[in-house]
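Dear support,

We are seeing what looks like truncated structure output for some complexes. This example has three components. We would appreciate it if you could run it in full and send us the complete token output so we can diff it against ours.
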Amino acid sequence: MRCVLYSQVRITHALLAAFALLTPLACAPSDAPGTIVLHVANWGGAKEGTEDDKRVEDIYREFERQNPDVRIQEESVPQDYVAKMALAYVAKAQPDIMMLDLSSSALFINCGVVSDVSPLMQADKSFRQEDFFPNVFAAATRGDKVYAIPLDFTPMVMYYNKRMFDQAGVPYPKDDWDFAEFQALARKLTIKDKQYGFAFKNWPAGWVMWLWNAGGDHLKQDPPTATGYLDSRDCVKAVTFIKDLVAEGSAPSISQAAAAGVDLFANGQAAMTISGHWDLMTYKNAPKDANGKPKITWGDIGVVPLPHEVPQSQTVMYESGYAITSQCKHKHLAWKFIRYMTSHDVQAKYQFSGIAVSARKDVAEERARASELEASFLPIIPSCRPPYGSKVEGYEFVEDQMTKAMDSVIQNSRDPYQALHKAAQAIDREFAK
Amino acid sequence: MIASQKPSFEGGLGRVNDSRFSVAIRTTGLLVLVVAGLLWSQASPPVRTLLASGGALGGLLALTGSSKRAASYWLLTLLAVILFAPFAWMVLVSLHPPKTPIPPLAEIIPQKPAWDNVKQVLFSPTLPVSRFFFNTVVVTISVVVLQLLITSMAAYSLSRLKWRGREVVFWLFIGSMMFAGPVTQIPVYLMLRNLGWLDTYAALIVPGISSAFSVFLLRQFYLQIPFELDEAARIDGASDWKIYSRVILPLGKPALATAGAFTFFAVWTDFFGPMIYTNSTEMRTLEVGLSIFKNSYGTTNWPLQMTAALIVLAPLLIVFLFVQRFFVKGLMLGSIK
Amino acid sequence: MSSTATRRSRFGPLFVAPAFIHLLVFALVPIAYAGYLSLFKLHLIRGQMHFVGLTNYGYTFGDASFWNAMWNSARYALMSVPLGMALGLGVALLVNQKLKGVTIFRTIFYIPSIASGIALSMLWIYVFLPKTGMINTALGWVGITNETDFLANVHWAMLALVVMTALNGVGPKMILFLAGLLNVPPELYEAAQIDGASRPRQFWRITLPMLAPTTFFVMVTSTIAAMQVFTPVYLMTKGGPEDTTDVVGYHIYQESWVRFNTGLAAAQSFILLAVIAAIAVVQFRLQKNQLKGYSTA
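Here is the complete output from our reference environment:
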């Protein structure tokens, strides 16, 4: 009977253990009475233990020092940020402040998930809207209502590898170049089996600008309409242009880019590419060649606006900002925190990582004075359009359809007009639901 | 019909006529070698590579090709190579310096292995890793213990007791598994919020203390235990509970080990639950807490991400090795009384 | 075979109660609520609910892309379930022998199923890459140059996903079959040996029938999981080249968490439930004669 008793005893032990473990169910470290906890949600990343993250932690702690009785509780959501914020809103469990990625913010703004801070702005005499770049600030507004204060942003620019241009004996691109000049340059800089003139990536957020620079617009924003826009002649011209680039070998096909497995520009395999400020970090940590030298350095990089058929070069910017949620119970304190995070001193420290351009003009200009690379971004800023996702709900679907269309044009040789038209119809059908 | 304790070796493959099989293998191997040699001079370089590999294989078979044993080893090794590759890849990537992009296969072996990465993740100044570990252990053990208890009781009832409505209940369990997740996540989240359980252990433990999958699994296993044992026990005057706890549970140890292991792994690596139901970093589990490398300011820190993944994986390997002894034949079906 | 002696017991429901209450609270009630929601046009965040009766169902029935996804899910299940089961059973038989080091093999086989899904997906993307990917490199060694980008090729993408998930999922199935094999009494084999039965015959007449409850379990749960598959598509192909890997699980996720059309997502989930249930009924009927001798399936 030993095994019998044994199993009985084991079950009892297990039950006891379970109860013991379950009692600290609601245990959490407790604050001193009177402490207000400000919950700040972002999509993760401030917890890596690197120098940059320590800096951010210090910034939070400094705010706590300046405001005793306040604790900053960061809520990082590494995945499915939009879904979690949506759920939190529905269940009335929102944080006090949430970081907004403007390219997916339309939903939150339209549905009242975040609140209008213009009353707080007006009541606060020390706040100056002119401190921020005007178009960057305007992206989070609807008329007079302001839904987020921008933190930082990045314009999409054309990077080029000066060393490769020098080796080919080709002069650097100029601001007023058009599609034909770009194509010629790409050709000259393509060396078969060694480097591409242009590293094309099928990421709509990174190529939609070609459509604008060809003179078209891919979507009417209000009400969202794609037919007649995405499949317009100018957009078809732009997509055909890209298709030709790939066809003649100046740009890799999607499979070829995938085959490399690394960012082609960072790996010294492409002379030009379109990307945002964040990729400077990638280029800083570029892969090294056989001698241990990095394949590309910041000194090799030049920045120029995108080629354009229209008078002014068109591009887009992606930005993030702080918003106060509609269920926030400490709106004034939250506003204070936002003022703190977007103040000159804090921004100067925060932007030290160099991932993005500060939304504050003064900080951005200071950094530009210190570095030629940074300075080359400044002139491009005024011509940046805000991301369409800041005004159009469900914009992700538009980008999905655009990806599919470009895929079918490049990988499966579909006719550009057919592909774009099919995508436009799908988009319109989806918005009609 | 009570299973004996004599260990047997052949299991489902039955016994084999060793000598005939082994002769066949050796002959085949020899033939392959000879054919490869004959065609060598005629073949072009690419085909030669093919012939070389084929010839080597044939030669080895000719040399060793003895029993079914060797054939088993060949197959096992082939599969192991395929399935070990992900793990090896993860380890190699994790040894690259932090913040470097995923190296292409040609450069997969790091020139200077960054052994420091493990330290950086485990002792990160801004990540409470020991807290993550504690949370994960508490949640996982609670769920496993409670789930085994609750689901084994249910499986016992569904497989060995007759009562009205039993089939309906059984099919309700199975049917619940057929409803895809996304839509039901919302009412569950709302419920947890209204109970005030968000950001507490309750939200991480309670939804997992029973699972239709485990109920189904255990029931199928319990069906294989001979029913005569119940009869014998009843004749001796045992109650349902006694039969459950003294007959079925002990005999169903492999089943419990299986269900327990599955649950352990699932809860330990659960990402969605802990991420959605907890907000503060202190309440996070290892899997979620260490996923932060995924999205640091827009670029993924792959080497550290892989290091973190390996850290989460390591304890599971230990658990798996421990649970393995339940699957060794000859130990389990011990006699009753 | 065992006799079918189950006894009537008043305590039956009692034993099931904790599990069933949990099921009610965390599964059945939410599903019923979802059923209720499926009759509404509802945007999760806007919060406005309009009663639309069966319109969501009607729309889904007429939605060509949904049925394309359903067909893809079915294709996926048809390929991956038998493959996974055969692999799992085969590997279980292999490791069921007393070979030295078999524990290490078992552990290696199990690792992919518990390793981080993201890490696995990244790795398998590398396996399938054109030119520099593992498959193409291996083909290169035997002299076949191949440029196929498997995941971007309309003919290969689904197959690639099937092979990947079948291999990754070997571990749990292997364990299940191993545990099931333990319950096969050795005397049966000895008796068959004495009667002169050959090895394959023993396998078909003894092993497989005795494994029937386990096989049924693996088949049903694999099918359910296959019809709901989501993660590999989400991480690797996002619906795939020209919608060839667009599966229902991905559709429902998109509808629910990207477009926030909760009512429509609920209706789609119920339609998927109906399809899976139909398949399960068929599987149950097919297995019924295998499970003769057990009181119920």
